[in-house]
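tool_call: predict_structure(chain=1)
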Amino acid sequence: MAVAEPTGPALTREEVDRALARLGAEHEAVESSLLALQDHAGRRLLEGAELTGETSSRWAAAEALIGQLWAYFDAYTAALTAARELRARRRWPTQGELSELTELLRGSGITLPGHGTAVLGTAGLTGAAAGPAGAAGMPARLSEHLSLQELLDRMNGWYAQALDVVVIADAVWSALPARIDLLAAELGRTRSLAHSVGVRPGEHPAGDDLEQITRELAALREEVISDPVVFWAGGPPSSAPGGGRPDTTRYDRAARALEDVRREVEAVLDVRQDAEQRLMRVRDVLSRADRTLNEARQARIEVLSKIAASVVPAVSGPPTALYEQLSAAAEHRRHARWHRLSPLLEGLEQRAEEELLRARESLTAVTAPLAVRAELRGRLDAYKAKTARHGLAEDSLLIERYDAARRMLWSAPCDLMAAEQAVLRYQQALAEALSAPSGTGEQPTGRRGEA
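tool_result:
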């Protein structure tokens, strides 16, 4: 045993007994921890795995630490055993024995081979260079002298560092591979359903997405198995409860992508189930649009023949392109090309509704002059009825102006602007007649178009 530095006054018998009890409890705790680490499922998996990357370097350093831990534990056990044997010689130890016990329990009398182990204790497992051989720039020592407490502190630090690697790998392997396998099974079911409806790589974007997800899951599983440490987010597990967790970012992204593909495949499947009904609805909408356009064309002929000096918009022909697309959709359905029918049918439904709306707007625009003529006729009849109610049916001026307006509105072609002025003149004559002293006393409203 090497000569240690003076350790101060000798311990009393009671202090020696308390120190031995404390160190003995620490010894049992360290032994239990080392045995648990030895039997840890994560350690067994690490020992049998083909590791790469950061996990490989950190596990190599951790294995070296574990070997050093057992060597240091043996030294700790031997020193504690020697102290216990010395204390057990007699019930009341002599002063010389108390001094020797004090040196054993508090002095730096435990000689250990250096091997750069102090470097490991400070550098930790953060880099691949950490290991029993030391670190660059710090020469390894042939031996060093430690006390029992220093030895215990160093073992505790190394144990925490080695345990971090084991627990991280075990946590990642417990969380991710099983989830990846479940997602791969779901991918297989989605792929089978996709193929049944024609969603295949090179033919549909969702088929290409399935291939990409398949490659990503295979690569992800391989990386998780060989390098689990890089899939850890946050602090090390042993630093604090909840200080870290498996990083599932790539898995979550693949799961979302698969869900998007699944929805697309289900949409295609829905097309297969109700394609005939949807095609019939498109045909019906286009047929209604055709009838409306025909009505607009006939109305335009009527307007041109009955209304003079009126700008009547042209009416377009039938939607030939939509009918061609409808035929293509029917062809896709007959040949079970559901992946092609799905986007085509959705576009057809929207464009057919737009075509019907356009036809209705065209009919409204074409028949606008007829609507104006009908409104003027209605106003003229209303004024005539009012003339009769007030006893002015025989008024020559009113008769003359009514006949002039009526000839314009019931003749073809009708000049709407002239007819509107004629109706207005009849209205004004009626208003003047009603306001004359010989009238009934009813006052005109003064608004254009009313008496």
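agent: Residues 370-435 form one domain. Proceeding to next step.
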